[in-house]
Amino acid sequence: MKFNFKFLLITLFICSISIAQNKGTISGVLTDKESNNQSLPFANVLLKGTKISANTDIDGKYSLSVNPGNYTIIFSFVGYESVEQPVTVTAGQTVTVNQILSSGGYTLKDVVVKSTANKQKETALLLDQKNAVAFKSAIGAEEITRKGVNDVATAVSKVSGVSKQDDSGNVFVRGLGDRYNVTTLNGLPLPSNNPANKNILLDIFSTNIVDNIGISKTFEAQNYADFGGANIDISAKKFSGKPFLTFSVGTGANTNVLGQDHFYLQDGPSYSGFKTVGVPDAPLKPYNYATSWDRQENKNVLNAFYALTGGRKFILNDESSIGTFVTASFSAKNKYTEGYSRGGITSDGDILSDFYRKAYKHSTTTTVMGTADYKINNKNSIFFTSLFLNSSDQDYSEYEGTNVNFDGGGATALDQITGFIKRGTFERTRLTVNQLTGKNKFNDQWNLNWGLGYSISNSAIPDRMQNSFVYAPNGTDYTFFTNSNINNHRFFQDLKEKEFAANIALSYNFNKKSNDDGYRGKVTFGYSGKMKKLDYTMQQFSFFPDRTTISFPKEDIHHVDNYLDEAHFGSSQSNRIHQLYNGNLDIHSAFANVQYSLTEKLSVILGARFEKLTQDVFYVTTTVPDGDNSNYSKFNILPSLISKYTLNEKQNLKFSASKTYTLPQFKEKVPILYEDVAQAYEGNPKLYPSTNYNFDLGWEYFPKSGELVSVTAFGKIIQNPINEMFLNSSSNDITYANTGKKATVAGIELEIRKDIFEIENENSLKTKLSFDANGSYLYTNQDLSNDKVNAENPFGANFTFTESKLTGASNFLANANISFLNEFSHDRDISATVSYSYFSDKLAVIGTSKVGNIVDKAVNKLDFILNTSLTKSLKLGLIYNNILNPTFKRVQEQGEVPGKSAVGDVLVTSYKAGSDLRLTLNYTF
Questions:
Q1: Which of 7, 244, 763, 821 is the most buried (most CB within 10 A)?
Q2: What dihedral angle (degrees, nearest 10) is formed by the CA atoms of 75, 81, 86, 88?
Q3: Residue 512: closest CA among 99, 102, 36
Q4: Looking at residue 825, what is its pLDDT?
């Protein structure tokens, strides 16, 4: 039996060799004439009159194994002229047939769509990264779906070197936070939706508007130079493929919310987030408000998601068409957290404000976007984008604990500083964006790209309310605490921001290569500018009920309307605080880039941006009632250098160097005191921009289509860095300052995308297991100078340490995903992804006067995503987010202060966000 088995194997082996030798191979590479003969992936290769076909891979390569004979190969690609080539195949031999495709004089009637390549696909984005001279990374709609991402902030955090701040849309790139990043839509700037932020919070954008998100961590002269971390560019989705209409619905819940018997919110805002409340006619009387001071129970505790998306192309003539895409969506989410909320921690670790917080949160996002891609002819196109977004956040929080300023009754000292605070905050943002971009090709050498954008953002806190309570003199009942304006108030804030932006770039290709093989060089010059105007106003109405006549049992803390009525409030005191600022930011820039292929392997881009910058703000505050200005103007020359050396057809080596700057935000420059329950912030009109010198060196390896290994080393020198710091006072308020002369940043990033296995059967159905991971290590160090801060600002500094990390910087970031795909038929499949992320400790606030630094502790996150196509039209999805449900902690590292090691870390805040379950259904008509 053993001999027969060996004989069978030998026989089969000889037969397989004989069969293989009876066949021949056709192979080659397809290139794109319209892109300087770069490889053309996803093109169609067909043997005429047969069913034998293939698609080119990410490198434009193809291979066909056929019987000997004479054939005609048809090469085709969407929007390009098809080409037929005769070929003769000999047994056991390989014949090479390379082909260049071009758009030529094709018309739409000639196009037969068999496959499309666009930047929603992971493979297409990797090809773009491979071919680009500049450093590029991106995440497309395909990857976003695979990883179960619902908002843009979370999508961006899946990219190497990027982390997301929990419970916020803020992202950190290479440890650098909001102030160092730039957010654009289709290359044009977006306004902020929060006076505390430079960028709009990315978590308010639903991913159903996204074609892809590009993250550029290196500066190029055509981009805005207020940049140190990354330029995050959202590309609005375009229509592609067949006409469609898709309806999506989703439901789910947060585990913390499900664990509560009751879910409370403040009175006033609607479930949808559109309703607003204005200031009443007589706002200094607490009983004149249309909304209750008391919490309201909310029965809608389930999360919900609805979306309607459609697209269609309209053929106008042989060369002209309009592709239209429209999407409308609404989402509502509920969260509940509880944990410590502390402030005023002294150098000895004493906690002056020590509360346990329970927070009920309801957030909504409504998005409507339409795009029209008008192809005038083969050489001219216009793309129009119109976006409306309404987002809202409700936060009703209850704080119970101690505060040294409390002056209640009771028999013990602890009773006298014990109290209760309730605060309801409603924030609403309405954003309208209209953009028009265009591409014009005059001939093979001259091209024009341009864009115009106008955006309006209205961010408001239309009705914040707070009440504070302490024990009444009898030590049993409660009464109002009326020590300061913040204790019992109504607050109204409005920020209006209008921005006009324009980009225009004219490029010229020169030094034509031999054999009609494209051009060696391209020079681009143009204009890039924006004009932003903002108006901020706030009103706070504070109330001081007569404590000698008002007291009530503890349960009536939630029935305050009964004690702030006309009969009880009577002639008690009240006051109004009104503060405002008006600002403008004007940037006008001319830029020039020269890209040149010095050899077949070495290319460089030399760029320069010549920029006139003006940032002015006028403010009226309680401390500056007559008003004052904080103005800044400068002309900047900002050079950049990018180079790429192609080691071989699969490997690149890239280098970049540039100079940029970082502006302070308007709110940071205005001396308004912003008071939260446990912490207060105050602006500094003496702030000025930082200057950044940036360096990157990267190696990229593309083993095959869809795979990547890359390593990037980077460094930055930041002159006059801006940081949050404690004021050198007993208040422990936080302010902003240029805290030292220099900060140094250095790090390394690693990214791997690998197919573990891929099996394709005779029906071209795949079973695939893939893995991707990225991580970055970051070193930051900055000097802290008391003398510099004292000399430049109206307040003093007494830093606890002489140096520190940069605020917002994590030493280590990591993301990892493993995905499985199984195709049952061309219309039925199932995919599953396990996604993990981690960021290490992150400095939040720099300590002064022997008070330690405040640090956000490390967090792990694990998600599971399951998607299945049941039919061609019906898809189901299951998302389980934050499975590990870690505790988020912020600590004051008092133990790191010399002489205070016995104190150790003091907990500032802590909470668990809960896990989120979501079930989605998509039906395409």
A1: 821
A2: -20
A3: 36
A4: 87
| Strand 24-32 to 38-39 pairing | antiparallel
Question: The dihedral of CA 905, 908, 914, 920: what is its sign?
Answer: negative
* DSSP character at residue 664: P
* 509-541 as b/e: b if 16+ CB within 10 A: beeeeeeeebbbbbebbbebbbebebebebbbb
Residues 6+ apart with CB under 8 A from 695: 656, 657, 714, 715, 716
Q: Is 748 helix (H, G, I), strand (E, B) or coil?
A: strand
How many C-beta neighbours within 10 Å does residue 571 have?
6
299 close to 257: Cβ distance less than 8 angstroms: no
Token pair for 284: 């200094």
Of 532, 459, 538, the closest CA to residue 495 belongs to 459
Q: Answer for the pair 620, 580: CB distance below 8 angstroms, yes or no.
A: yes
Strand (E) or helix (H) holding 471? strand 446-471
Who wins on pLDDT, 184 or 201?
Answer: 184
Task: Answer whether residue 339 shows pLDDT above 80.
Answer: yes
In three-state secondary structure terms, 256 is helix
Of the ranges 490-494, 757-761, 917-921, which one carries the lowest mean pLDDT score? Answer: 757-761
Q: Can you tell me the distance from the alpha carbon of 398 to that of 466, in angstroms, rounded to the nearest whole number?
A: 10
User: Can you tell me the distance from the alpha carbon of 781 to that of 797, in angstroms, rounded to the nearest whole number?
Assistant: 19
Q: What is the dihedral of CA 785, 789, 790, 794, to 10 degrees?
A: -170
More confidently predicted of 666 and 420: 420
Task: Give how far Cα 108 sits from Cα of 78, 159, 314, 371, Å.
Answer: 10, 37, 11, 21
* Residue 872: predicted pLDDT: 87
- Of the pLDDT bands very low, low, confident and very high (cuts 50, 70, 90), residue 106 is very low
Question: What is the pLDDT at residue 140?
Answer: 79
Minimal CA–CA distance to 337: which of 395, 298, 392? 395
Q: How far apart are CA 258 and CA 340, in angstroms?
A: 21
Lowest-confidence region among 61-65, 256-260, 543-547, 855-859: 61-65
Of 109-118, 517-526, 658-667, least confident by mean pLDDT is 109-118
Instruction: Please give the structure tokens belonging to residue 20.
Output: 């293989």
Cα dihedral 772, 228, 664, 184, rounded to 10, equals -60
**Of 104-113, 548-557, 727-736, where does mean pLDDT reach its minimum?**
104-113
Enter the tokens of residue 396. Answer: 């009703």
Q: CB within 8 A of 717, min separation 6: which ones?
A: 692, 693, 742, 743, 744, 745
Residue 40 CB burial class (10 angstroms; 0-12, 13-18, ≥19): buried
Task: Taking residues 276-286, report their average pLDDT.
Answer: 90
Q: What percent of the chain has pLDDT over 90?
A: 58
- pLDDT of amino acid 363: 94
Q: Is the per-residue pLDDT at 382 higher than 50?
A: yes
Give the count of alpha carbons within 13 A of 9, CB side only.
6
Bridge partners of 386, per DSSP, are 370, 434
CB neighbour list of residue 472: distance below 8 Å, 6 or more residues apart: 408, 409, 478, 479, 547, 551
What's the pLDDT score for residue 488? 97
Query: Using CA atoms, how far apart are residues 443 and 748, in angstroms rounded to an integer?
Result: 42
